[in-house]
Amino acid sequence: MLAALIYFGIDTLALVILIFTIGFEFSFLLEIGFHCWIIYYLSKGVIIWNQLRKNDKDLIENSTEKKLEKTILSEKKKFHEYFFK
């Protein structure tokens, strides 16, 4: 999505340059509106994607597998301390 936002931003910049070089026509209003609409939704998608990615990292760090792994390691440590003093 980020790549799509970048490429569409470049396309919008090219549209603006085209408008300034050949002059504004009424038909460009539809294209400008379309570009603004797509950039808005692509931006929202990138923002939400980053939030979900951050939440996934938090979920992985706090997952039950990590807790189970810590418990197993602590039990192994207790076992070695008890039997190999």
Notes on the structure:
- With 85 residues, the chain is mainly α.
- It has one domain.
- It has helices at residues 2-22, 28-61, 64-83.
- The radius of gyration is 27 Å and the shape is rod-shaped.
- The model has no long low-confidence stretch (mean pLDDT 82).
List key phrases describing it.
85 residues, mainly alpha
Layout of secondary structure:
Layout: H1 2-22, H2 28-61, H3 64-83
- Average pLDDT metric: 82
Fraction of residues in H or I helices = over 70%
- N-to-C SSE series? HHH
The helix count comes to 3
Number of domains: 1
Please provide the count of β strands.
0
What share of the residues does DSSP label as strand, in percent? Answer: under 5%
Low-pLDDT stretches are none
**Rg value:** 27 Å
Question: Which structural class fits the helix and strand makeup?
Answer: mainly alpha
Q: Looking at the structure, what is the overall shape?
A: rod-shaped
Cα distance spanning the termini: 57 Å
**Main sheet record:** none
Question: How do you describe this structure in short?
Answer:
With 85 residues, this protein is an all-alpha fold. It contains 3 helices and no strands.
